[in-house]
Specification:
It is built from twelve helices and nine strands. It is α/β, with parallel strands linked by helices. It has two domains: 13-324, Rossmann fold; 329-376, no CATH class. The longest helix has 26 residues, at 33-58. The structure holds thiamine diphosphate.
Length: 376
């Protein structure tokens, strides 16, 4: 007897502007010209910043730095589909997403320069969260924030990011289970950049697509061309609307490629070929979108040159702010972590205090600013 089919699924992929510039008019989202230009400007600016930051690390002016080269569309577009009161939690590869939300670049430099005054300087009207270096631990927090919003009848949505490798973690399963059961207004964006450090996507999971993982949790799942600004914009705006209407979570697999190393501590040439990288360069999100704007007569090469000049000056000013900021009090690192500090931190803090006093007495350190934050 033939078996009965109890459920059938399909996985769809959204592509609007192909790598060679073909536009699917039937899917083209209606984006105001001003917004189109803002998307492009921010992508072009963050690309220049990324290159500058990479060079600064090589010159010893920055600590480890995770490049976002090639991922500008997935970094910049989703945050620009949100309202400030929505929540956003990027991964450590998140300087583009923070920039799109209005955080000044000097704070990303500070963070990757090893100064904890960096990264968490969001505009005060934003509901953003600091990213976590541990992969995946923020995914359940995103579900929790969305649950809180739902219980408070707050129409905010939560948008969070993860990498392809992170879909193999237990946190992913827990977060998606919860988000699906409680129909939470949360959007999980996978930046499938094809690698988790040196582990290629094919060794990460036997799942044919990542987007199909959504089905196991009752989330809406979609594969998106992550280097296509129009597709990312359409997919995220629809996910945000679904979330606001109480229709539950969305899981978007945005296919992109990390053109640089995993971080400056990695050497990608050891595990992938130049031919592979070259194939992905042809799908570049910034160039592709620029051609689209030119075809719409919204942009031209002169304006592009002017934009780059202005961006360079803006980035230079941010670097100067970063490099001339007086150093923080090292004791700050103990603040704001615990409601009640555990004994070993009390001891370590006291020890550092002693060391700093001795160094100051010997004039080995300059005058330190007051300690910031709370250390109970
Ligand atoms: C809990 C935890 N385990 C291991 C690491 C080390 N680590 C840092 S990034 C990374 C790979 C993450 O890959 P993916 O999720 O694909 O994100 P991508 O960096 O490619 O954007 C690993 C294993 C970590 N930071 N946290």
């Amino acid at each position: 007897m033939p078996l009965k089919t109890v459920a059938e699924f399909k996985i769809q992929r959204l592509e609007i502007l192909s790598p060679d510039g073909q536009l699917d008019k039937s899917l083209e989202p209606q984006i105001p010209n001003e917004k189109l230009l803002e998307l492009y400007r921010k992508m072009a600016e963050i690309r220049l910043f990324d290159d500058k930051a990479f060079r600064m690390q090589r010159q010893g002016r920055l600590g480890t730095y995770p490049q976002i080269l090639g991922q500008e569309a997935t970094q910049i577009v989703p945050p620009l589909c949100l309202k400030p009161k929505d929540w956003m939690i990027p991964t450590y590869r998140g300087q583009g997403a923070y920039y799109a939300r209005g955080m000044k670049l000097r704070y990303s430099l500070l963070y990757w320069g090893g100064d904890d005054r960096g990264a968490a300087h969001f505009p005060p009207e934003n509901n953003d969260m600091i990213f976590s270096i541990p992969v995946g631990t923020h995914l359940t927090q995103a579900a929790g924030l969305a649950w809180g919003a739902k219980m408070n009848h707050d129409p905010s949505v939560v948008l969070t990011y993860l990498g392809d490798g992170t879909t193999s973690k237990g946190d992913f399963h827990e977060a998606l289970t919860f988000a699906g059961v409680y129909k939470l207004p949360v959007i999980y964006i996978v930046e499938n950049n094809q690698y988790a450090i040196s582990i290629p996507r094919s060794k990460q999971t036997a799942s044919q697509t990542l987007s199909q993982k959504a089905l196991g949790y009752g989330a809406v799942g979609l594969q998106v061309d992550g280097n296509d600004v129009l597709a990312v914009y359409k997919a995220v705006t629809e996910a945000v609307e679904r979330g606001r209407k109480g229709e539950g979570p969305t899981f978007l697999e945005c296919e992109t490629y990390r053109l640089g190393h995993h971080t400056t501590a990695d050497d990608a040439t050891r595990y992938r070929s130049e031919e592979e990288v070259e194939q992905w360069r042809k799908k570049d999100p910034v160039d592709r979108f620029k051609k689209y704007l030119i075809s719409k007569k919204l942009w031209d090469e002169d304006r592009d040159m002017r934009l780059k000049k202005e961006a360079e000056a803006m980035i230079q000013a941010e670097i100067e702010e970063y490099e001339t900021m007086s150093p923080p009090n090292p004791l700050n690192m103990f603040a704001n972590n615990y409601a009640t500090a555990p004994w070993h931190l009390v001891e370590q803090r006291a020890e550092l205090e002693e060391i700093l006093k001795t160094k100051q007495a010997r004039k080995e350190v300059v005058e330190l600013p007051p300690v910031e934050g709370r250390f109970p």
